[in-house]
């Protein structure tokens, strides 16, 4: 199809995820054609530096031939193998084995999903199975954070508190609850690290008390909140929340769909504080976006409790046709090789450069806050630094950012009118980080 036909066909037929349908029919789509490293080329041949790694997933960068070859070889040999009825493909077994050795503590058991939303959904079902198996079936309530994002299935959207995922959707909120997110920049009162941590711990205790400790199953959080505005909690927050969950006898689930696979430096963000969750959900960087796949890692204790509760011959009733898909698993193995052979280290070096450059942007008149964890960063925009005033919607900053960013040849994500999100591929060189930050500065100058 030529470009005009593509645009028309897109507007007439393709429904885009999480997008403003009305706007899209007037202005969309932006058609991407190819990619190499951290760079994308659109249908007109315009080169764009991808400061968001697709949708914070293409951690290893575009055009990695070893990944393409692994997928091709797997597709040629065996494009599909079910995991049902005792069957398995080789790649999924090998990937589970390698991941079990890399996950924190005894998170040795791996269930593969198709992405992050159904990883969260699966985790929630496994949690129910577990609470039934250990004789505490009344433990049904699950607590998340007000700025948490855990996918857009009905259950995941329930755990997600962000308004856009609830509007007109009648998401049933019978057992999902939320406590305030740690948000250092906008924390009211004493905003020392210790005070922020203490207020989150107190909020969790209060919520559990309100619901009754015997009724609460788990607490879910992202180590760094992503879609809620890239909010980095103070050091020690994760440890304190993990300990609080242990004291309250509720499971601690780390949703590392964004933070996993080197995004914040180490393979998993929990490693910053040596925190071992009871369960962990991942996706995105697991296959670096080359094929769809997510996973739930569960502790040995949860696994054996569920297993031992089911009599022989009785299935644990959860799974999807494409769980542990062989092509995605082969891609996962090739991507893991890349992480271990330089990409993780490259992300750490590039992350340091990104921190230096973003720190220097704090003086910009529009920049109220900069937060960064490895190669994950948020820039919060304000129109009055002292009062921390958010840009008013009439200024239309979000639309301007997207348009001007494209003109300047840089892709990032605008969250509402006040937060710019950055998550460049980990393979970026320091020079590319400089180009990225130069372009972002020009964008800010132009929209300010
Ligand atoms: N959990 C978190 C923390 C996420 O950021 C996302 C997606 O951005 C999801 C879950 C859902 O993942 P997916 O979009 O692959 O379904």
From TrEMBL:
Gene3D superfamilies tied to this protein: Aspartate Aminotransferase, domain 1, Type I PLP-dependent aspartate aminotransferase-like (Major domain)
Q: Which cofactor does it need?
A: pyridoxal 5'-phosphate
The family database entries (PROSITE patterns) matched by this protein are listed as:
AA_TRANSFER_CLASS_3 (PS00600)
Which GO MF term does the entry hold, naming one?
transaminase activity
Top-level taxon of origin: Bacteria
Under the heading SUPFAM superfamilies, the entry gives: PLP-dependent transferases (SSF53383)
Q: Which UniProt keywords apply?
A: Aminotransferase, Pyridoxal phosphate, Transferase
Does the record's keyword annotation contain Transport? Answer: no
Q: Locate the transmembrane regions by residue number.
A: none
Is Chloroplast among the key words of this record? no
Assigned protein family = Belongs to the class-III pyridoxal-phosphate-dependent aminotransferase family.
Name it: Aminotransferase class III-fold pyridoxal phosphate-dependent enzyme
Organism of derivation: Acetobacter musti
């Amino acid at each position: 199809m030529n470009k005009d036909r593509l645009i028309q066909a897109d507007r007439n037929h393709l429904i885009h995820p999480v997008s403003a349908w009305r706007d899209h029919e007037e202005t969309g789509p932006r058609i991407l054609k190819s990619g190499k490293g951290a760079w994308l080329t659109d249908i007109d041949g315009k080169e764009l530096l991808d400061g968001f790694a697709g949708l914070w997933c293409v951690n290893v960068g575009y055009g990695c031939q070893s990944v393409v070859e692994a997928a091709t070889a797997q597709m040629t040999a065996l494009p599909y193998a079910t995991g049902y009825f005792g069957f398995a493909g080789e790649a999924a077994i090998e990937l589970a084995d390698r991941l079990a050795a890399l996950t924190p503590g005894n998170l040795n058991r791996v269930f593969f999903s198709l992405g992050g939303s159904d990883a969260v959904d699966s985790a929630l079902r496994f949690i129910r199975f577990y609470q039934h198996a250990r004789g505490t079936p009344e433990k049904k309530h699950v607590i998340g954070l007000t700025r948490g994002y855990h996918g857009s299935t009905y259950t995941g959207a329930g755990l997600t508190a962000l308004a856009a995922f609830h509007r007109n959707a009648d998401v049933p909120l019978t057992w999902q609850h939320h406590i305030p997110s740690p948000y250092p920049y906008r924390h009211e009162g004493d905003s020392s690290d210790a005070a922020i941590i203490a207020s989150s711990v107190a909020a969790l205790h209060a919520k559990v008390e309100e619901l009754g400790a015997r009724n609460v199953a788990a607490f879910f959080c992202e180590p760094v909140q992503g879609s809620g505005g890239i909010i980095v909690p103070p050091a020690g927050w994760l440890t304190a929340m993990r300990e609080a969950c242990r004291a309250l006898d509720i499971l601690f689930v780390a949703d590392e769909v964004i933070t996993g696979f080197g995004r914040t430096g180490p393979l998993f963000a929990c490693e910053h504080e040596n925190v071992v969750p009871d369960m962990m959900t991942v996706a995105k960087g697991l296959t670096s976006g080359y094929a769809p796949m997510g996973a739930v890692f569960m502790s040995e204790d949860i696994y054996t409790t569920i297993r031992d509760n089911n009599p022989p011959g009785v299935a644990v009733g959860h799974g999807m046709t494409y769980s542990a898909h062989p092509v995605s698993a082969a891609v996962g193995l090739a991507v893991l090789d890349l992480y271990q052979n330089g990409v993780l280290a490259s992300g750490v070096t590039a992350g340091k450069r990104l921190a230096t450059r973003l720190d220097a942007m704090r003086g910009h008149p529009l920049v109220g806050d900069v937060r960064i964890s490895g190669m994950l960063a948020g820039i919060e925009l304000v129109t009055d630094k002292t009062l921390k005033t958010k840009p008013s919607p009439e200024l239309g900053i979000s639309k301007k950012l997207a348009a001007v960013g494209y003109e300047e040849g840089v892709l990032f994500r605008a969250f509402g009118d006040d937060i710019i999100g950055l998550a460049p591929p980990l393979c970026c060189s320091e020079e590319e980080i400089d180009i990225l930050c130069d372009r972002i500065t020009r964008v800010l100058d132009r929209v300010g």
